[in-house]
C-alpha cells in the first residue's frame, strides 16, 4: 500500500506539473506572439501612412525602391517589400523574400483594404509577414495598387518561450521529489495505524483474545480501531462464556458417568447371574435375561466411553508409553476378543515403537471390530514401516519413519457422506452396511461385556474402552482417533477401494529407544 500511495502521489504531482507547464507555455507563447504581431501591424500602418503621403503614383523602379527603403528605416530590422503591378522593390537587396511571402497572403492583401498578417516557417525558422494595401485618402478608400509587406524575424520570441519552457520543465523534478516526500509522510501517517490493526488482528486470529489497538483521533481509522476493539471485546466475552459452558458440560458428563459406574456394576453382576441361570428359565424369561445382560453391558460401555471422551476434552488424557512390539500388541488385542480366526494378518516381526499399549489396543479393537461387523471377509490387518516420502500412504510425509497399520475389508464400503463424518461422535453409518446376524449380535454383546472392565490405574482406558458393539455407543471411532492423535499420529479412511470395501489406516510416528533412534 505504501508503494501504491507514493506512486499515486508522484503521478498526480507529475500530471499537475506537466499540465501547468503546458498551459504556461501556451499562454506565454500566445502573449509574446500577440504582442509582437500587434506591434508589427501598428508600426507598418503608421510608417506606410507617413511615407505614402508624399509618394507619387504610378511609380517607377527607382521611386518604388526608395519608398521601400524609407518605410524600412522606421521599422528597425524588418525587411520591407513594396509591389505595384509588375514592379517589386525590396529594402534589403540581398534578402530572399519569395519563400516568405505566400501567394495566399498576397491574394488577401490585393483583394481587401485591411492589413493582413501570417506566420510562416522558412528554412526552419519562424517569421511574421504583415501586408497592407495603400489606399487613396478620398472618401471611397480606393486601392492605389501599391502593396507593402514587412517581414519580421520571430526567432527571438521563439527563444524566449523555449527558455520559459525549459525553466518550467526543470521545476518538475523538485516538484516530483517534494510530492514523493509528502507521499511517504502521508503513507506513514495512514499505514501506521493500519499496521497496528493488522498486527492486532493476527494476534486475535492466533488466539490472543485480549489483543487491542490504541484509538487516536476521530477519523475513519479511529472509528475502525474502535470497532475492532469492540468486536474483540465481544468475542472475548463470548469465548469466556463458551469455555465456561463447555467446562460445565464436560464436568457434568464426567460426574454423571462416574456416578453411574457403581449402580451399573451392581446391575452387571445381577445380569451375569441371570444369564448363567438363563437355561433353567422359561424361554421368554431366558430371552429377557440375555437382553438385560446385553443392554447392561452396552450401557456400561457407554459410560466408560463418555468418561474417556471427557478426559480427552479436558486435556487430562496422558500416554503411559513404553517400547512395545506392535505385532504382539495387535495379536493380543485380537485374541482377547476372539477375532484371531476371522482376520488375515500380515504382521512382520521386529516392529517396535514407543507407544501406550492399552491405547493402541483400543484403536485396533475399534478398527477391526467395525470391519468385522460392517464389512465382509476377508478382513486383513497389515503392519508396515514407511520411511519419509512414503508414497500414497495417507498421513505419511517427510520427517522420519512412520508405522502404518491398515485394516481393510471387502464389504460395501462407506457412502461418500459417511467418509467425512465417520469419526464424529455418535455418528453411525447407513444400516445397509451392517451385516450382523442375530447370532453375531449375541456374540458381540458377550464379547463387549467381557472386554468391559475398570479404568486403567493411570486414568487411561480400560482393556476394552472405546470399543463399539453391534449396538455400540457411537463413540468408538472418535475415541480411536483421539488416541491416535495423542501419539502424534492420525487415522485416515479410504471409503471405497477399487476392489471393494473400506480401509482404515492408522499412522503413528516411529519412536524408538534402541540404537536406531531415541524417544
Describe the structure in your own words.
There is one protein chain. The protein has 519 residues and is an alpha+beta fold. It is 52% helix and 15% strand. The chain has twelve helices and twelve strands. The strands form three sheets. It has a five-stranded antiparallel sheet with strand order 2-1-5-4-3, with helices on both faces. Strand 11 and strand 12 (503-509) form a beta hairpin. Helix 9 runs antiparallel to helix 12 (476-486). The radius of gyration is 53 Å and the shape is rod-shaped. The protein starts with a helix and ends in a 10-residue tail after the last strand. Mean pLDDT is 78; it is low at 390-398, 430-471 and 515-519.
Features:
five-stranded antiparallel beta sheet, 12 strands
Radius of gyration equals 53 Å
Structural class: alpha+beta
Total count of helical runs of at least 4 residues: 12
Quaternary structure state of the chains depicted: single chain
Physical arrangement of strands within the biggest beta sheet: 2-1-5-4-3
Tell me the distance between the termini.
48 Å
Please tell me what the overall shape is. Answer: rod-shaped
Strand content: 15-25%
Give the SSE string. HHEEHEEEHHHHEHEEHEEHHHEE
Task: Return residue spans where pLDDT drops below 50 for at least 5 consecutive residues.
Answer: 390-398, 430-471, 515-519
Largest sheet geometry: 5 strands, antiparallel
| Mean pLDDT across all amino acids | 78
Q: Estimate the helix proportion, in percent.
A: 40-55%
Number of strands: 12
Topology:
Elements: H1 2-52, H2 61-73, E1 79-84, E2 87-90, H3 103-111, E3 116-122, E4 125-135, E5 143-153, H4 155-170, H5 172-205, H6 220-276, H7 283-314, E6 322-325, H8 326-336, E7 343-346, E8 352-355, H9 357-374, E9 379-386, E10 402-408, H10 416-421, H11 438-451, H12 476-486, E11 490-494, E12 503-509
Amino acid at each position: 500500500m505504501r508503494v501504491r500511495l507514493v506512486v499515486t502521489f508522484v503521478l498526480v504531482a507529475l500530471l499537475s506539473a506537466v499540465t501547468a507547464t503546458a498551459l504556461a507555455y501556451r499562454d506565454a507563447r500566445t502573449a509574446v506572439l500577440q504582442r509582437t504581431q500587434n506591434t508589427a501591424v501598428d508600426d507598418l500602418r503608421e510608417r506606410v501612412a507617413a511615407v505614402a503621403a508624399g509618394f507619387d503614383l504610378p511609380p517607377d523602379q527607382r521611386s518604388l525602391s526608395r519608398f521601400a527603403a524609407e518605410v524600412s528605416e522606421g521599422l528597425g530590422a524588418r525587411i520591407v517589400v513594396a509591389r505595384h503591378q509588375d514592379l517589386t522593390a525590396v529594402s534589403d537587396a540581398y534578402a530572399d523574400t519569395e519563400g516568405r511571402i505566400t501567394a495566399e497572403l498576397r491574394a488577401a492583401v490585393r483583394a481587401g483594404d485591411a492589413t493582413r498578417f501570417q506566420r510562416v516557417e522558412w528554412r526552419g525558422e519562424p517569421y511574421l509577414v504583415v501586408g497592407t494595401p495603400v489606399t487613396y485618402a478620398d472618401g471611397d478608400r480606393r486601392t492605389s495598387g501599391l502593396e507593402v509587406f514587412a517581414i519580421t524575424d520571430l526567432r527571438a520570441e521563439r527563444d524566449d518561450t523555449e527558455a520559459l519552457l525549459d525553466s518550467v520543465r526543470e521545476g518538475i523534478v523538485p516538484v516530483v521529489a517534494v510530492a514523493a516526500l509528502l507521499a511517504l509522510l502521508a503513507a506513514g501517517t495512514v499505514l501506521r495505524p493500519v499496521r497496528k490493526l493488522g498486527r492486532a488482528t493476527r494476534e486475535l486470529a492466533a488466539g490472543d483474545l485480549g489483543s487491542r489497538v490504541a484509538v487516536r483521533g476521530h477519523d475513519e481509522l479511529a472509528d475502525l480501531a474502535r470497532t475492532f476493539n469492540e468486536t474483540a471485546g465481544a468475542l472475548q466475552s463470548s469465548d469466556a462464556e463458551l469455555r465456561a459452558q463447555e467446562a460445565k458440560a464436560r464436568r457434568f458428563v464426567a460426574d454423571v458417568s462416574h456416578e453411574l459406574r457403581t449402580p451399573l456394576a451392581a446391575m452387571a453382576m445381577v445380569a451375569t447371574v441371570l444369564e448363567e441361570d438363563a437355561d433353567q428359565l422359561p424361554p421368554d424369561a431366558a430371552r429377557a435375561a440375555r437382553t438385560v445382560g446385553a443392554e447392561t453391558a452396552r450401557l456400561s460401555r457407554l459410560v466408560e466411553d463418555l468418561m474417556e471422551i471427557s478426559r480427552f476434552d479436558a486435556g487430562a488424557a496422558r500416554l503411559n508409553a513404553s517400547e512395545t512390539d506392535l505385532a504382539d500388541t495387535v495379536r493380543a488385542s485380537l485374541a482377547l476378543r476372539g477375532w484371531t480366526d476371522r482376520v488375515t494378518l500380515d504382521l512382520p516381526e521386529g516392529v517396535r515403537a514407543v507407544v501406550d499399549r492399552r491405547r493402541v489396543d483400543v484403536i485396533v479393537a475399534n478398527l477391526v471390530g467395525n470391519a468385522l461387523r460392517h464389512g465382509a471377509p476377508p478382513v486383513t490387518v497389515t503392519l508396515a514401516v514407511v520411511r519419509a516420502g512414503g508414497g500414497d500412504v495417507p498421513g505419511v510425509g517427510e520427517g522420519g519413519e512412520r508405522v502404518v497399520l491398515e485394516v481393510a475389508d471387502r464389504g460395501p464400503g462407506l457412502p461418500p457422506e459417511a467418509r467425512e463424518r465417520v469419526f464424529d461422535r455418535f455418528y453411525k453409518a447407513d444400516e445397509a452396511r451392517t451385516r450382523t446376524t442375530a447370532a453375531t449380535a449375541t456374540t458381540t454383546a458377550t464379547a463387549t461385556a467381557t472386554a468391559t472392565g475398570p479404568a486403567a490405574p493411570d486414568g487411561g482406558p480400560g482393556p476394552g474402552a472405546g470399543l463399539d458393539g453391534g449396538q455400540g455407543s457411537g463413540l468408538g471411532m472418535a475415541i480411536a482417533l483421539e488416541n491416535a492423535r495423542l501419539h502424534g499420529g492420525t487415522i485416515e479412511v479410504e471409503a471405497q477401494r477399487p476392489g471393494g470395501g473400506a480401509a482404515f489406516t492408522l499412522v503413528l510416528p516411529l519412536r524408538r529407544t534402541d540404537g536406531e533412534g531415541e524417544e
